[in-house]
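Cross-check.
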Amino acid sequence: MKTWFARAALLGLALGTAQPLVAQSAPVVRVDTGSLKGERIGALSVFKGVPYAAAPTGWRRWRPPAEMSAWKGVRDATAFGPVCYQPRARAGSIYTEDYGAMSEDCLSLNVWVPANASKAPVLVWIHGGALSGGASSETMYDGATLARQGLVVVSINYRLGVLGYMAHSELSAESPRHVSGNYGLLDQIAALRWVKRNIGAFGGDAGNVTIAGESAGALSVMYLMTSPDARGLFAKAIAESAYMISTPELREKRHGEIPAEAIGGWLQTKLGAENLAGLRAMDPAQLTDQAAKAGYAPFGTIDGSVLPAQLVDVFDRGEQAHVPILAGFNSGEIRSLRFLLPPLPATPAAYETAIRAAYRDLADDWLKRYPSSDIPESMLATTRDALYGWTAERLTASQSAAGQPSFLYYFDHGYPAADQASLRGFHASEIPYVFGTGDQTPAAWPKLPDTPEDRRFSTAVTGYWAAFARGGVPAVSGEPIWRPYSTGAYMHFADRPEPATNLMPGMSQLHEQVVCRRRAEANTAWNWNTGIIAPPLPPKAPGCR
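Predicted model, tokenized:
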């Protein structure tokens, strides 16, 4: 019998099939490109720096990810891979973390596996960072606590900034699809395909994959929900602080956005390169830094292929992935992102004048919600709602209308260090509670309290997210019932989880009307150009108020 098992194992290795996790002191698993040796951390098996695709580099830069070549022997998977090239973090940012080495060859992922995993639900985490920064190795993204909830947790790197999202006419000409851009998104899709092929070897269920992300990671979740290339690669979605903004189209100027190919041509000139070959010859670190300094901002490109249409259009037509969703936003999103705000008006009268010039017949509604009596708070709320609040409710409403279980949250959890810094409910503040990593936050992050109450709160948040990943319903024993959005319900995460209904009555509808008119005119973007810096609102249009 032992001989038979040995031969069967050897046959599996020879055929290159994924093999189950080997139970030993250093866990070994075989994926479709070779064997990996991870590390045992308590009852968990952890694999880091696992290559899921080959990143085109140098003269092959700006191409879709390529298949990985198989390796011989057993590959060490006990250290995170290098992060994708990115500019230095904004000075004074609470999100700053030392990621270590950077490389163009950065397409790796990490896997946390619970003990005795078999057909376990899978959660794939997509980091945030404005599509220009961040890494799967961030300390807050440690998947151990979620893995102890029975999930196989995967975190991924993907190309960022100019290297991940630049479109260019020469790139489109050499592409079989005749499109360019979206390379970072194609990396994410390649990672999901790797998961589909290989996660069974770790004890995960390839048919029960939840994609999850925060900020640009949540933007990526929406891109994946609308991309035909990603269809069938995931079963559920979690979007934390997503923003459904207008996005450049490949060749057409629409919604006030410069065509993506034109942006690439502008950047080439700005960087002093004669052509695409000149850009490919540049050092990747220099290219990344100079592009950021020039003002290049990475976004997905509407190319009719990878991304077929604007996000709002795809969702309105019901052509997105019909999967259960958990989505929400934070009360103080902009408190840690004040660079998104314009300068404060000098007087309440100046504020009201700017709002009336921008919002015309909707100005009275706007000023009721965002009054001049407290301009700083109104401006914080304006940008928060226009970017994150409207998006969260739109996502849950869209999926609910498609017949999918949908769950909305509002994260308003305060604690002493955050409150003292005027950062209650700040952008990304839910992440250490989701991952149970309150003791692993960046150095400048407001320190979480180590109290029984906060530990219970963290356990509840982790439990809700894990339950949703398991079965599509966020339910935790001993905690309040989180009812679906179809009933008008949401979960208010304050000092503790509190079920509630009718979140910010009228907020989503007001911003929907603004976006609806801008879309109808097709000449104005909807993103950070809100509040006192908003362009004049187009007149009423059919279907808009």
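Confidence is low (pLDDT under 50) at residues 1-17. The longest strand covers residues 204-214. Passed to J.P. for a second look.
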